[in-house]
TrEMBL record:
The lineage of its organism: Eukaryota, Fungi, Fungi incertae sedis, Mucoromycota, Mortierellomycotina. Residues 1-18 form the signal peptide. InterPro entries: Gal_Oxidase_central_sf. The keyword Signal applies. The keyword Signal applies. Keywords: Signal. This is Chitin-binding type-1 domain-containing protein.
Length: 183
């Protein structure tokens, strides 16, 4: 009977210890790392709750309990390609010099550019007095530029795209939203 009681107490003690370890593991999670401590590559849990490898993440305010191995220390490798081994950045290797060549005129200034096919780009400008005119006599704000033929096709838009933003949806649709007043 005494052995069973001791085994029971041992089981209770082990359960409490296991719960304590689970609680410590959960408490040691970096806020924005899916409830886990930071990995080796981004070892420091920053004051903002993000794992990182920068001086900002690993310095003052770093949460060591949520950092890799419980220490706020930056990750480095012996073969780090960005430094020369003494902590100083390596110089950028010399590359062949390029050149620019003007091959055409886009017609409108480029506030936004989107490559919509491999040979055509959409150029979006804000309301400007651009030289190309639409059939209505108004200055063009947008153009489609053919990269092969170096030709433009002017596009009519309803609003001034100044202060707008845009992007591509997963289905390939391009959107441009925001902007200023109507034409």
């Amino acid at each position: 009977m005494a052995i069973i009681r001791k085994l029971g107490l041992l089981l209770v003690a082990a359960s409490v210890l296991a719960l304590n370890l689970v609680a410590q593991t959960e408490a040691a999670a970096c806020k924005y790392n899916n409830g886990k401590p930071c990995p080796l590559e981004t070892p420091c849990c920053s004051p903002h709750g993000h794992c990182g490898n920068s001086l900002l993440a690993c310095d003052v305010g770093c949460d060591a309990s949520a950092s890799f191995a419980g220490v706020c220390k930056r990750y480095t490798t012996a073969t780090d390609t960005l430094t020369s081994g003494n902590g100083k950045p390596r110089p950028v290797p010399s590359l062949p010099k390029g050149a620019f060549k003007v091959v055409g005129n886009s017609g409108v200034a480029a506030q936004h550019i989107a490559l919509v096919t491999p040979t055509r780009m959409l150029i979006i400008d804000k309301a400007e007095a651009n030289p190309p005119k639409l059939p209505s006599g108004s200055s063009a704000y947008n153009a489609e530029y053919d990269l092969v033929k170096n030709e433009i096709r002017l596009l009519e838009v309803k609003t001034n795209t100044f202060c707008s933003g845009g992007g591509f949806l997963p289905n390939g649709t391009m959107i441009s939203a925001g902007g200023a007043e109507l034409r």
